[in-house]
Amino acid sequence: MHIAEGFLPPLHAVAWGVASAPFVAHGVRSLSREVKANPESTLLLGASGAFTFVLSALKIPSVTGSCSHPTGTGLGAILFRPPVMAVLGTITLLFQALLLAHGGLTTLGANVFSMAIAGPWAGYAVYRLLKRFDAPLMVSVFLGAFFADLVTYCVTSVQLALAFPDPGSGVAGALVKFGGIFAVTQLPLAVSEGLLTVLVMRLLLQSSKADLARLGVARPASRTGEQQGAAA
């Protein structure tokens, strides 16, 4: 859902940049605290950023001036919470704009707000709500990633509708138009991203369960289980 370089009116581009800045600044502090307190998190942080970079680079042509693609932000939001994902997402979007001509510098604020802020917060909220009601971990992960993707596309649709209202029906009509076009590709992509995030989480549970337990994603191994494992 990256909005292309120069596609937004200057006032809109500046406004979205101003709206995104406090979230990214807060994320920088959160990321710094995480790395200082838990240096062992660096590998998982890098993996979360790489996951976002690779998935969000897989673009499919959609609305003029934008595109459809997975976001990959749900995984990082679940592991490290949305403020950290705001930084990882911003870095991803900046590098994609500079190296892949995917998105743009003038539209960076808008793209950060939709993909690195709104999406991760929505996905994390769904994940935490389901965890509170004792939903299975993988169900929570799937729906968290699904809604992180889906809300990103919804916010991008709002951004485009505000910038280019329909001559007859205004912003509401433009929102229906942009959202309807995005939905054709974005709904299947959101489902696919949810399934892929579940697969990655399963792999992490096998290889990095102690880290996931420290992050509050997985339950720590019981002492009884540890003693049985040691005896075996």
Structural overview:
- The chain has 232 residues and is an all-alpha fold.
- 75% of the residues lie in helices and 2% in strands.
- The protein is built from nine helices and two strands; from the N terminus they run ααββααααααα.
- Strands 1-2 form a two-stranded antiparallel sheet.
- The longest helix is centred in the last third of the chain and has 38 residues, at 170-207.
- Mean pLDDT is 91; it is low at 223-232.
Question: Which bin fits the share of residues in helices?
Answer: over 70%
**What integer value in Å does the Rg equal?**
19 Å
Structural class: mainly alpha
Number of strands: 2
Tell me the series of helices and strands, N- to C-terminal: HHEEHHHHHHH
Widest beta sheet: strand line-up: 1-2
Tally of contiguous helical segments:
9
Main beta sheet: 2 strands, antiparallel
Distance between the termini: 51 Å
Mean residue pLDDT: 91
User: Which oligomeric state applies?
Assistant: single chain
Residue runs with pLDDT of under 50 for 5 or more positions: 223-232
Please report which band the strand proportion falls in: under 5%, 5-15%, 15-25%, 25-35%, 35-45% or over 45%.
Answer: under 5%
Backbone shape: globular
Pathway: Cofactor biosynthesis; adenosylcobalamin biosynthesis
InterPro entries: CbiM, CbiM/NikMN
Membrane topology: Multi-pass membrane protein
Keywords: Cell membrane, Cobalamin biosynthesis, Cobalt, Cobalt transport, Ion transport, Membrane, Transmembrane, Transmembrane helix, Transport
